[in-house]
Amino acid sequence: xxxxxxxxxxxxxxxxxxxxxGKVLDAGQATVSxxxxxxxxxxxxFETLRVQGGTPVALRRHLxxxxxxxxxxxxxxxxxxxVLRAIAEVVDGSTLADARLRITVTAGxxxxxxxxxxxTQTLIVAVQSLDPVPAVADVVVVPWxxxxxxxxxxxxxxxxxxxxxxxxYAKARGASEAIFANTRGELCEGTGSNVFVVxxxxxxxxxxxxxxxxxxARQIVIExxxxxxxxxxxxxxxxxxxxxxxLTSSLRDVQPIATVDGVALPxxxxxxxxxxxxxxxxxxxxxxxx
Length: 290
Description:
single chain, about 290 residues, alpha+beta, 7 helices, 15 strands
C-alpha cells in the first residue's frame, strides 16, 4: 500500500465562524449531534465558495449545484431563503471581507447504519480565513480511480475520505493536488478541482460522464470564456503530454499546472492558460455572480 498518512493540521477556532440552528457561533461553540447522519455515514452534501469583499462569488451556481447534489443523494432541497440568510449572517458576523465559505446540508439525526430517519435536515454555514493559493500547481496522479458509474458520481457529498487520502498522497510527494483517472483509464479530475489541457493548440477538458464534478469555475470557463473548450474523453496520458494545462476551482480560479509527477510541462502558464486566466479575472471584476 502507498504511504497515505494524513498529517494533523491545527485550525485555530478564531479563524472559523459558524452559523447553525439560527445562531452565529465560534467554531468551538458550534456542535451537531453525535448521531447526525452526516457525521456517522457521510450522508450530506456541501458547497465551498470564496467570499470576496464581503460578497460570495458565483453564489447562484453554487446554490443550484447544492440543490442538484441534494436531489442526487435523495435529500430535500434546502430552503434557499434560509440558506441565503445564514450566509449573510455568518459573513457579517465573521468580520472577514475575504474568506472561504462552506455550506453543509445533512440528512439530520439518523440511525448508526445507512438507513435514514425522516427528521429535520441539518444546515451549517461556516466561514474561514483564506489560505494563499500558489501561482502554479504541482500535481501527481494517484493510484486510485474515480468510479464514473457510482451512485454518487458528480455529486458533492460530505463523504470525502477518498479525497483526504489522495491529497495526503500528493502532499507526501511535494505536490499540491492529486489527479484521478476513472475506471476506463481516462483523465477525470482532482480532489477539489477540474482539469483542462491544451493539445495541439486546442483547449480540452473531460466531459461530465467521465465522473468529474461539474465545477462552477469549470462552468464559467466553458460558458463565459472567449476560448472554445472541447469536452471529450481524454486518456490519462494527455495530462503529461499537454503543451499546457491548468486546474479550475472556486478557490483557485484558474491555476496553471507546472509539473505532473515531477515532470515539467512546456509552459506554466502557457498562452492559452494566460488568456483563460485574464478572461476569468475580467469577468469576475465585472460580475461576482456570473
